[in-house]
Amino acid sequence: MNPARRNPRSSGLRTAAASAAAVALAATGLAALPSSASAAADGIVVQYRTSASGASADQSEPWLKVRNAGSASVPLSGVKVRYYFKADSPSAAYRFACSWAVKGCANITGTFGTLANPTATADRYLEIGFTAGAGSLAPGADTGDMQLRFHQSSWASLVQSDDYSFGPDRTAYGDWSKVTAHVSGATVWGEAPGGSGPTDPPDPTDPPGDAPTLFDDFDYSSHTDPRIGANGWSVRSNSGGPGVPGATWDPANVTFASQSGNSVMNLETSTAGTGASTEHTEILTKSMKFRNGTYASRVKFSDAPRSGPDGDRIVQTFFTINDLKAPMADDYAEYDFEYLPNGGWGEPANILYTTSWETYRPDPWEAVNAHSEVRASYAGWHDLVVTIDDHRITYYVDGQPFGTHGAAYLPERPMSINFNQWLIDLQGQPSTTPRAYDQQVDYVLHVKDQVLTPAQVNAMVGAYRGAGTSFEDTVPAG
Questions:
Q1: What is the mean pLDDT of each run of 10 residues along the chain (478 residues)?
Q2: End-to-end Cα distance, the chain
Q3: Three-state secondary-structure class, residue 461
Q4: What contacts 468, CB < 8 A, 6 or more positions away?
Q5: pTM higher than 0.85, yes or no?
Q6: What angle do CA 199, 202, 207 make, to 5 degrees?
Q7: Peptide bond between residue 242 and the one before it cis (omega within 30 degrees of 0)
Q8: Distance between CA 288 and CA 290 in Å, rounded?
Q9: Which end of the chain is more exposed for a tag (fewer CB within 10 A), N or C?
Protein backbone atom coordinates (compact mmCIF):
# COMPACT_ATOMS: atom_id res chain seq x y z
CA MET A 1 0.00 0.00 0.00
CA ASN A 2 1.25 3.48 -0.77
CA PRO A 3 0.67 6.60 1.37
CA ALA A 4 -2.62 7.27 -0.41
CA ARG A 5 -4.05 4.14 1.21
CA ARG A 6 -1.99 3.33 4.28
CA ASN A 7 -3.11 4.02 7.83
CA PRO A 8 -0.98 6.84 9.24
CA ARG A 9 0.05 7.20 12.86
CA SER A 10 -2.71 5.96 15.14
CA SER A 11 -5.08 8.26 16.96
CA GLY A 12 -3.13 7.57 20.15
CA LEU A 13 -0.11 9.26 18.64
CA ARG A 14 -2.26 11.98 17.14
CA THR A 15 -3.47 12.80 20.64
CA ALA A 16 0.10 12.86 21.89
CA ALA A 17 1.07 15.03 18.95
CA ALA A 18 -1.57 17.54 19.93
CA SER A 19 0.81 18.61 22.67
CA ALA A 20 3.76 18.81 20.29
CA ALA A 21 5.01 21.19 17.72
CA ALA A 22 7.93 23.20 16.54
CA VAL A 23 10.45 23.99 13.91
CA ALA A 24 11.69 27.35 12.97
CA LEU A 25 13.09 28.70 9.79
CA ALA A 26 14.11 32.24 8.95
CA ALA A 27 13.99 34.20 5.76
CA THR A 28 14.98 37.29 3.94
CA GLY A 29 13.44 39.48 1.27
CA LEU A 30 13.59 38.79 -2.45
CA ALA A 31 15.51 40.79 -5.02
CA ALA A 32 14.57 41.07 -8.68
CA LEU A 33 16.87 40.41 -11.61
CA PRO A 34 17.21 42.92 -14.42
CA SER A 35 14.26 42.40 -16.74
CA SER A 36 15.90 42.40 -20.14
CA ALA A 37 19.15 42.18 -22.02
CA SER A 38 20.31 42.47 -25.58
CA ALA A 39 20.48 39.38 -27.72
CA ALA A 40 24.24 39.68 -27.67
CA ALA A 41 26.14 38.22 -30.60
CA ASP A 42 29.14 37.80 -28.32
CA GLY A 43 27.68 35.83 -25.39
CA ILE A 44 25.19 33.17 -24.33
CA VAL A 45 22.38 32.38 -26.79
CA VAL A 46 19.35 30.20 -26.08
CA GLN A 47 17.78 28.12 -28.84
CA TYR A 48 14.31 26.63 -28.52
CA ARG A 49 11.90 24.26 -30.18
CA THR A 50 8.70 22.61 -28.96
CA SER A 51 7.93 18.92 -29.13
CA ALA A 52 4.28 19.51 -28.14
CA SER A 53 2.83 22.20 -30.42
CA GLY A 54 -0.86 21.96 -29.53
CA ALA A 55 -2.75 24.80 -27.87
CA SER A 56 -3.30 22.40 -24.95
CA ALA A 57 -1.40 19.28 -24.00
CA ASP A 58 -0.84 16.76 -21.22
CA GLN A 59 2.56 18.36 -20.76
CA SER A 60 4.57 21.23 -22.17
CA GLU A 61 7.80 20.18 -23.91
CA PRO A 62 10.26 23.07 -24.29
CA TRP A 63 13.44 21.58 -25.81
CA LEU A 64 16.42 23.87 -25.37
CA LYS A 65 20.05 24.38 -26.35
CA VAL A 66 22.44 26.86 -24.77
CA ARG A 67 25.17 28.11 -27.13
CA ASN A 68 28.33 30.06 -26.31
CA ALA A 69 28.72 32.74 -28.96
CA GLY A 70 31.44 34.47 -26.96
CA SER A 71 35.19 34.25 -26.91
CA ALA A 72 35.75 32.68 -23.47
CA SER A 73 34.72 29.39 -21.88
CA VAL A 74 31.57 29.57 -19.68
CA PRO A 75 31.00 27.16 -16.73
CA LEU A 76 27.44 25.89 -17.07
CA SER A 77 27.01 25.74 -13.29
CA GLY A 78 26.71 29.54 -13.38
CA VAL A 79 24.04 29.59 -16.12
CA LYS A 80 20.27 29.73 -15.51
CA VAL A 81 17.65 29.61 -18.28
CA ARG A 82 14.03 30.66 -17.74
CA TYR A 83 10.93 29.61 -19.69
CA TYR A 84 7.86 31.75 -18.83
CA PHE A 85 4.27 30.52 -18.74
CA LYS A 86 0.79 31.28 -17.42
CA ALA A 87 -0.39 28.97 -14.63
CA ASP A 88 -3.60 27.10 -15.39
CA SER A 89 -5.00 28.20 -12.02
CA PRO A 90 -3.65 30.13 -9.02
CA SER A 91 -3.30 26.90 -7.07
CA ALA A 92 -1.82 24.81 -9.89
CA ALA A 93 1.36 22.92 -9.01
CA TYR A 94 3.84 21.63 -11.59
CA ARG A 95 6.43 18.87 -11.95
CA PHE A 96 9.59 19.04 -14.06
CA ALA A 97 11.25 16.17 -15.92
CA CYS A 98 14.16 15.71 -18.29
CA SER A 99 13.52 13.03 -20.93
CA TRP A 100 17.01 13.07 -22.47
CA ALA A 101 19.97 15.41 -22.70
CA VAL A 102 23.41 15.32 -24.31
CA LYS A 103 24.84 16.65 -21.03
CA GLY A 104 22.94 14.01 -19.06
CA CYS A 105 19.65 14.57 -17.24
CA ALA A 106 21.43 14.04 -13.92
CA ASN A 107 23.34 17.26 -14.62
CA ILE A 108 20.22 19.36 -15.32
CA THR A 109 17.91 20.83 -12.68
CA GLY A 110 14.44 22.33 -13.04
CA THR A 111 12.64 24.51 -10.48
CA PHE A 112 9.55 26.71 -10.64
CA GLY A 113 9.21 30.34 -9.56
CA THR A 114 6.76 33.26 -9.73
CA LEU A 115 6.95 36.66 -11.41
CA ALA A 116 7.05 39.78 -9.28
CA ASN A 117 4.64 41.47 -11.74
CA PRO A 118 2.45 38.93 -13.57
CA THR A 119 1.28 39.63 -17.10
CA ALA A 120 -1.52 38.25 -19.27
CA THR A 121 0.89 35.60 -20.63
CA ALA A 122 3.09 34.79 -17.65
CA ASP A 123 2.95 34.51 -13.89
CA ARG A 124 5.35 31.56 -13.45
CA TYR A 125 8.65 30.40 -14.87
CA LEU A 126 10.58 27.17 -15.17
CA GLU A 127 14.25 27.74 -14.35
CA ILE A 128 16.78 25.33 -15.82
CA GLY A 129 20.14 25.04 -14.10
CA PHE A 130 23.22 22.83 -14.34
CA THR A 131 25.35 20.92 -11.88
CA ALA A 132 29.15 21.02 -11.95
CA GLY A 133 29.00 17.71 -13.81
CA ALA A 134 27.68 19.53 -16.92
CA GLY A 135 31.11 21.08 -17.37
CA SER A 136 31.81 24.24 -19.39
CA LEU A 137 30.91 25.54 -22.84
CA ALA A 138 33.90 26.39 -24.98
CA PRO A 139 33.57 29.29 -27.45
CA GLY A 140 31.29 28.19 -30.28
CA ALA A 141 30.02 25.09 -28.42
CA ASP A 142 26.49 24.31 -27.28
CA THR A 143 24.89 21.96 -24.81
CA GLY A 144 23.22 19.86 -27.47
CA ASP A 145 19.64 18.67 -27.01
CA MET A 146 17.93 19.16 -23.68
CA GLN A 147 14.59 17.40 -24.13
CA LEU A 148 12.66 18.89 -21.22
CA ARG A 149 9.04 18.78 -20.13
CA PHE A 150 6.72 19.83 -17.33
CA HIS A 151 3.13 19.04 -16.38
CA GLN A 152 0.54 19.76 -13.74
CA SER A 153 1.08 17.62 -10.65
CA SER A 154 -2.47 16.33 -11.11
CA TRP A 155 -1.76 15.48 -14.77
CA ALA A 156 -4.71 17.65 -15.77
CA SER A 157 -4.40 19.03 -19.30
CA LEU A 158 -2.60 22.36 -19.46
CA VAL A 159 -3.16 25.31 -21.81
CA GLN A 160 0.05 26.57 -23.38
CA SER A 161 -1.30 28.81 -26.14
CA ASP A 162 -1.29 31.71 -23.64
CA ASP A 163 2.28 31.04 -22.42
CA TYR A 164 4.79 33.82 -23.09
CA SER A 165 7.69 31.54 -24.06
CA PHE A 166 5.65 29.05 -26.10
CA GLY A 167 6.16 29.04 -29.86
CA PRO A 168 3.72 26.66 -31.57
CA ASP A 169 5.45 26.96 -34.94
CA ARG A 170 8.97 26.45 -33.54
CA THR A 171 9.41 22.81 -34.52
CA ALA A 172 13.14 23.20 -35.27
CA TYR A 173 15.82 24.78 -33.10
CA GLY A 174 16.38 28.49 -33.51
CA ASP A 175 17.39 31.50 -31.40
CA TRP A 176 14.46 32.45 -29.13
CA SER A 177 14.48 35.70 -27.16
CA LYS A 178 11.32 34.79 -25.21
CA VAL A 179 13.49 32.53 -23.08
CA THR A 180 16.02 34.35 -20.90
CA ALA A 181 19.51 33.33 -19.80
CA HIS A 182 21.36 34.55 -16.72
CA VAL A 183 25.02 34.14 -15.81
CA SER A 184 26.00 34.66 -12.18
CA GLY A 185 22.78 36.64 -11.62
CA ALA A 186 23.08 38.96 -14.65
CA THR A 187 20.62 38.67 -17.55
CA VAL A 188 22.64 38.03 -20.71
CA TRP A 189 20.02 36.86 -23.22
CA GLY A 190 16.36 37.45 -24.01
CA GLU A 191 13.60 39.59 -22.60
CA ALA A 192 11.30 38.69 -19.72
CA PRO A 193 7.52 39.16 -20.20
CA GLY A 194 6.26 42.70 -19.81
CA GLY A 195 9.73 43.94 -18.96
CA SER A 196 9.29 42.31 -15.55
CA GLY A 197 11.85 39.97 -14.10
CA PRO A 198 11.00 37.03 -11.84
CA THR A 199 11.52 37.21 -8.13
CA ASP A 200 14.87 35.75 -7.18
CA PRO A 201 16.28 34.72 -3.82
CA PRO A 202 18.92 36.96 -2.32
CA ASP A 203 22.54 35.99 -2.03
CA PRO A 204 22.70 33.01 0.36
CA THR A 205 25.20 34.93 2.46
CA ASP A 206 22.68 37.71 3.18
CA PRO A 207 21.72 38.01 6.87
CA PRO A 208 18.54 36.12 7.84
CA GLY A 209 16.52 39.16 8.84
CA ASP A 210 14.17 39.20 11.83
CA ALA A 211 11.58 36.54 10.95
CA PRO A 212 10.58 34.40 13.96
CA THR A 213 12.87 31.38 13.92
CA LEU A 214 13.51 28.07 15.66
CA PHE A 215 17.01 26.61 15.42
CA ASP A 216 18.30 23.68 17.46
CA ASP A 217 21.73 22.10 16.99
CA PHE A 218 20.75 19.29 19.43
CA ASP A 219 23.70 20.04 21.68
CA TYR A 220 22.51 18.06 24.71
CA SER A 221 24.15 15.60 27.09
CA SER A 222 21.43 12.91 27.25
CA HIS A 223 17.67 12.40 27.12
CA THR A 224 17.51 13.56 30.75
CA ASP A 225 19.22 16.90 30.02
CA PRO A 226 16.80 19.51 31.50
CA ARG A 227 17.50 21.83 28.56
CA ILE A 228 15.56 19.48 26.24
CA GLY A 229 12.28 20.23 28.02
CA ALA A 230 13.21 23.86 28.62
CA ASN A 231 13.81 24.27 24.90
CA GLY A 232 10.34 22.92 24.08
CA TRP A 233 11.00 19.25 23.27
CA SER A 234 9.39 16.08 24.58
CA VAL A 235 11.03 12.65 24.33
CA ARG A 236 8.18 10.21 23.92
CA SER A 237 7.55 7.54 26.55
CA ASN A 238 3.81 6.84 26.23
CA SER A 239 2.56 3.68 24.52
CA GLY A 240 0.51 3.41 21.34
CA GLY A 241 0.96 3.61 17.60
CA PRO A 242 2.22 3.79 15.03
CA GLY A 243 3.93 0.51 14.36
CA VAL A 244 4.23 -2.87 16.05
CA PRO A 245 1.48 -3.58 18.62
CA GLY A 246 2.88 -3.94 22.12
CA ALA A 247 6.05 -1.97 21.37
CA THR A 248 7.31 0.64 23.80
CA TRP A 249 8.77 4.11 23.17
CA ASP A 250 11.96 4.34 25.22
CA PRO A 251 13.37 7.84 25.94
CA ALA A 252 16.76 6.30 26.77
CA ASN A 253 17.18 5.44 23.08
CA VAL A 254 17.59 9.16 22.28
CA THR A 255 21.30 9.92 22.70
CA PHE A 256 23.73 12.67 21.68
CA ALA A 257 27.34 12.64 20.49
CA SER A 258 29.85 14.91 18.80
CA GLN A 259 30.65 14.28 15.12
CA SER A 260 33.00 16.47 13.09
CA GLY A 261 32.57 19.29 15.56
CA ASN A 262 28.74 19.18 15.61
CA SER A 263 26.46 17.63 18.18
CA VAL A 264 24.32 14.90 16.57
CA MET A 265 21.15 13.31 17.95
CA ASN A 266 20.74 9.55 17.51
CA LEU A 267 17.38 7.74 17.52
CA GLU A 268 17.77 4.00 18.12
CA THR A 269 15.02 1.47 17.36
CA SER A 270 15.48 -2.18 18.32
CA THR A 271 13.65 -5.49 18.31
CA ALA A 272 14.14 -9.20 18.88
CA GLY A 273 11.20 -10.15 16.71
CA THR A 274 8.34 -9.73 19.20
CA GLY A 275 6.12 -6.82 20.15
CA ALA A 276 7.33 -6.91 23.75
CA SER A 277 10.98 -6.68 22.66
CA THR A 278 10.42 -3.82 20.21
CA GLU A 279 11.45 -0.31 21.21
CA HIS A 280 10.48 2.64 19.00
CA THR A 281 11.86 6.18 19.37
CA GLU A 282 10.44 9.70 18.95
CA ILE A 283 11.21 13.31 19.88
CA LEU A 284 8.70 16.11 19.21
CA THR A 285 7.97 19.68 20.15
CA LYS A 286 5.60 20.15 23.07
CA SER A 287 3.92 23.12 21.41
CA MET A 288 1.93 23.17 18.20
CA LYS A 289 2.85 26.63 16.95
CA PHE A 290 4.34 26.02 13.50
CA ARG A 291 2.37 26.56 10.32
CA ASN A 292 3.51 28.31 7.11
CA GLY A 293 7.17 28.89 6.44
CA THR A 294 10.30 26.80 5.95
CA TYR A 295 11.19 23.61 7.79
CA ALA A 296 14.63 22.04 7.42
CA SER A 297 16.80 19.34 8.92
CA ARG A 298 19.89 17.32 8.11
CA VAL A 299 19.12 13.64 8.66
CA LYS A 300 21.17 10.47 8.27
CA PHE A 301 19.13 7.52 7.03
CA SER A 302 20.35 3.92 7.41
CA ASP A 303 19.88 1.02 5.02
CA ALA A 304 21.26 -1.59 7.43
CA PRO A 305 21.01 -2.16 11.18
CA ARG A 306 23.86 -1.14 13.44
CA SER A 307 23.85 -4.71 14.72
CA GLY A 308 21.96 -7.92 14.04
CA PRO A 309 20.17 -9.21 10.92
CA ASP A 310 18.72 -6.81 8.34
CA GLY A 311 15.30 -6.80 6.72
CA ASP A 312 12.88 -5.13 9.13
CA ARG A 313 10.28 -2.79 7.61
CA ILE A 314 11.47 0.30 9.42
CA VAL A 315 10.36 3.93 8.90
CA GLN A 316 12.78 6.86 9.45
CA THR A 317 11.12 10.29 9.51
CA PHE A 318 11.10 14.07 9.78
CA PHE A 319 7.59 15.56 9.81
CA THR A 320 5.12 18.15 11.08
CA ILE A 321 1.64 17.25 12.35
CA ASN A 322 -1.40 18.33 14.36
CA ASP A 323 -4.19 16.24 15.88
CA LEU A 324 -7.16 14.72 14.06
CA LYS A 325 -10.14 16.08 16.02
CA ALA A 326 -12.69 13.89 14.21
CA PRO A 327 -12.67 11.45 11.26
CA MET A 328 -12.18 13.42 8.00
CA ALA A 329 -11.82 16.71 9.92
CA ASP A 330 -10.71 19.32 7.39
CA ASP A 331 -8.39 21.17 9.78
CA TYR A 332 -6.00 18.22 10.12
CA ALA A 333 -2.50 18.61 8.62
CA GLU A 334 0.67 16.54 8.28
CA TYR A 335 3.78 16.91 6.08
CA ASP A 336 6.19 13.96 5.99
CA PHE A 337 9.61 12.85 4.90
CA GLU A 338 9.49 9.06 5.37
CA TYR A 339 12.32 6.71 4.34
CA LEU A 340 11.69 2.97 4.18
CA PRO A 341 15.10 1.28 3.69
CA ASN A 342 13.62 -2.22 3.43
CA GLY A 343 10.29 -1.34 1.85
CA GLY A 344 6.86 -1.76 3.37
CA TRP A 345 3.29 -0.66 2.59
CA GLY A 346 3.48 -2.89 -0.50
CA GLU A 347 6.91 -1.65 -1.62
CA PRO A 348 9.59 -4.38 -1.96
CA ALA A 349 12.71 -2.25 -1.44
CA ASN A 350 13.99 1.16 -0.34
CA ILE A 351 11.79 4.17 -1.09
CA LEU A 352 11.60 7.79 0.08
CA TYR A 353 8.15 9.36 0.40
CA THR A 354 7.08 12.96 0.87
CA THR A 355 3.39 13.18 1.76
CA SER A 356 1.03 16.12 2.37
CA TRP A 357 -2.13 15.21 4.29
CA GLU A 358 -5.46 17.02 4.17
CA THR A 359 -7.36 14.51 6.35
CA TYR A 360 -8.18 10.86 6.94
CA ARG A 361 -10.58 8.45 8.62
CA PRO A 362 -9.08 5.45 10.44
CA ASP A 363 -12.10 3.11 10.27
CA PRO A 364 -13.16 2.40 7.62
CA TRP A 365 -9.93 3.70 6.13
CA GLU A 366 -10.17 6.77 3.89
CA ALA A 367 -7.44 9.32 3.17
CA VAL A 368 -7.08 12.63 1.35
CA ASN A 369 -3.41 13.30 0.63
CA ALA A 370 -0.80 13.79 -2.07
CA HIS A 371 2.59 12.13 -2.21
CA SER A 372 5.82 12.02 -4.20
CA GLU A 373 8.32 9.19 -4.07
CA VAL A 374 11.67 7.97 -5.36
CA ARG A 375 12.58 4.28 -5.27
CA ALA A 376 16.28 4.39 -4.47
CA SER A 377 18.68 4.14 -1.57
CA TYR A 378 18.98 7.28 0.55
CA ALA A 379 21.47 5.86 3.04
CA GLY A 380 23.68 8.60 4.46
CA TRP A 381 23.27 12.28 5.33
CA HIS A 382 20.62 14.31 3.48
CA ASP A 383 19.44 17.92 3.64
CA LEU A 384 15.62 17.90 3.91
CA VAL A 385 13.60 21.08 3.34
CA VAL A 386 9.85 21.63 3.05
CA THR A 387 8.32 25.05 2.42
CA ILE A 388 4.66 26.00 2.93
CA ASP A 389 3.17 29.24 1.59
CA ASP A 390 -0.38 30.28 0.72
CA HIS A 391 -0.38 28.30 -2.54
CA ARG A 392 1.67 25.11 -2.28
CA ILE A 393 3.89 22.75 -0.32
CA THR A 394 7.33 22.11 -1.83
CA TYR A 395 9.79 19.43 -0.75
CA TYR A 396 13.55 19.46 -1.42
CA VAL A 397 16.18 16.78 -0.90
CA ASP A 398 19.84 17.82 -1.05
CA GLY A 399 18.94 21.14 -2.64
CA GLN A 400 16.87 19.62 -5.47
CA PRO A 401 13.06 19.72 -5.80
CA PHE A 402 11.50 16.40 -4.78
CA GLY A 403 7.77 17.12 -4.95
CA THR A 404 5.18 19.91 -5.01
CA HIS A 405 1.64 19.54 -3.66
CA GLY A 406 -1.18 22.00 -4.23
CA ALA A 407 -3.33 24.36 -2.17
CA ALA A 408 -5.85 21.64 -1.26
CA TYR A 409 -3.32 20.29 1.26
CA LEU A 410 -2.34 23.54 3.03
CA PRO A 411 -2.57 23.57 6.86
CA GLU A 412 -5.49 25.25 8.61
CA ARG A 413 -3.98 25.00 12.10
CA PRO A 414 -0.46 25.07 13.59
CA MET A 415 1.54 21.87 14.01
CA SER A 416 4.37 20.30 15.98
CA ILE A 417 7.77 19.23 14.63
CA ASN A 418 8.69 15.57 15.01
CA PHE A 419 11.38 12.95 14.37
CA ASN A 420 10.72 9.27 14.90
CA GLN A 421 11.88 5.78 13.91
CA TRP A 422 9.57 2.78 14.13
CA LEU A 423 8.76 -0.64 12.67
CA ILE A 424 5.68 -1.06 10.49
CA ASP A 425 5.42 -4.76 11.46
CA LEU A 426 7.62 -7.77 12.20
CA GLN A 427 7.06 -9.55 8.90
CA GLY A 428 10.15 -8.26 7.08
CA GLN A 429 12.57 -10.15 9.34
CA PRO A 430 11.14 -13.12 11.34
CA SER A 431 14.37 -13.76 13.29
CA THR A 432 14.38 -13.49 17.08
CA THR A 433 18.01 -12.36 17.03
CA PRO A 434 18.26 -8.86 18.54
CA ARG A 435 18.96 -6.01 16.10
CA ALA A 436 19.12 -2.22 16.34
CA TYR A 437 18.71 0.58 13.77
CA ASP A 438 19.94 4.17 13.95
CA GLN A 439 18.58 7.42 12.52
CA GLN A 440 20.68 10.53 13.18
CA VAL A 441 19.72 14.22 13.17
CA ASP A 442 22.21 17.09 12.90
CA TYR A 443 19.92 20.13 13.38
CA VAL A 444 16.41 21.46 12.84
CA LEU A 445 15.38 24.90 11.57
CA HIS A 446 12.03 26.62 11.11
CA VAL A 447 11.45 30.14 9.78
CA LYS A 448 7.90 31.40 10.26
CA ASP A 449 5.94 32.62 7.20
CA GLN A 450 9.03 32.79 4.97
CA VAL A 451 9.98 30.58 2.02
CA LEU A 452 13.72 29.96 1.93
CA THR A 453 15.78 28.28 -0.74
CA PRO A 454 17.95 25.33 0.33
CA ALA A 455 20.99 27.59 -0.14
CA GLN A 456 19.51 30.13 2.28
CA VAL A 457 18.85 27.36 4.80
CA ASN A 458 22.49 26.26 4.61
CA ALA A 459 23.65 29.85 5.01
CA MET A 460 21.46 30.37 8.08
CA VAL A 461 22.67 27.19 9.75
CA GLY A 462 26.26 28.21 9.02
CA ALA A 463 25.60 31.65 10.52
CA TYR A 464 24.15 30.17 13.72
CA ARG A 465 27.11 27.82 14.12
CA GLY A 466 29.60 30.54 13.26
CA ALA A 467 28.13 32.67 16.04
CA GLY A 468 28.27 29.76 18.50
CA THR A 469 24.46 29.66 18.83
CA SER A 470 23.20 26.13 19.50
CA PHE A 471 19.54 27.05 20.20
CA GLU A 472 17.14 29.88 19.46
CA ASP A 473 13.35 30.01 19.49
CA THR A 474 11.61 33.29 18.71
CA VAL A 475 8.47 31.70 17.23
CA PRO A 476 5.48 33.00 19.21
CA ALA A 477 3.15 30.54 20.90
CA GLY A 478 -0.35 30.02 19.59
A1: 41 32 29 32 82 94 94 88 93 92 94 86 93 91 96 93 95 94 83 63 48 96 97 95 95 93 94 96 97 96 96 97 95 97 94 96 93 94 94 90 90 97 95 97 96 89 90 92
A2: 36
A3: helix
A4: none
A5: no
A6: 145
A7: yes
A8: 6
A9: C
